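Exam revision sheet. Question 4 asks you to relate a sequence to its structure. Input first:
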Amino acid sequence: MSKSKFSWGNLYLIFTFLLMYAPIVFLIVYSFSTGDSMTNYHGFTFKHYQELLADKRMIAIFLNTILIALLSSVFATIIGAAGAIGISNQKRQKNKEILLSFNNILIVSPDVIMGASFLIFFTALKLPLGFWSVLLSHIAFEIPIVVLMLLPHLNELSDSLLTAAKDLGSSSYQTFSKIVLPFIQPGLIAGFFMAITYSLDDFAVTFFVTGNGFSTLSVEIYSRARQGISLEINALAGIMFIFSLILVIIYYFIENNHSQSNKKVKARLRGKL
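Answer key, structure tokens:
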């Protein structure tokens, strides 16, 4: 009986991964086709990748997208960390629940509503639509994600560790830098990479707040899709998939190197007590 369950479980996992990755593989395979459409595969070539690299507009948009993703993720991680610590430090449970509810509202709100809200907000402030409007919008919708990634780590942080640090003469800064920061570091890293993913993936919000010739990959691909997608977009999909894979590998190694940090902090403090 156990063998049957195990084999069915493996079959389910295989089916799930095939369902998720088959469309991506399909796009990437056709990016090497000598044809100009995805109707038939006509042979192997790097022609579409060469066309992509020669497309200065697409390269500029790609760099804009990466820049927005990195900058917004850095600011969202810093602000989100401060917000998560503020929520965690609330003495009354009701206050925590209220603040967490306000945070979650931004996550469950439809992207179209958020995009329209940002557009109205920036228009009211007379802020030109472009790089800064996109950057501020991405920071805003990434912050709640970072908060949710950090709160479980902060909830696991024992008050006895903080009390022990104070008893040993640590200042507030030393307590934060030597205990709190190393303890929540895995959450910070996870939140940062999740913020990058959300930024790269976003279309609806970005569509509302782009302007003045500034664009991101999601908006540009949508604009070109209305005219018929060329295999240059397939080549771009292949490059973005490799880029995402590199991010996952980097995150894995960072997370693996810091997985023992919390245990070391606890052991160091217990050894001094």
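Marking note for examiners. The chain has a mean pLDDT of 83.
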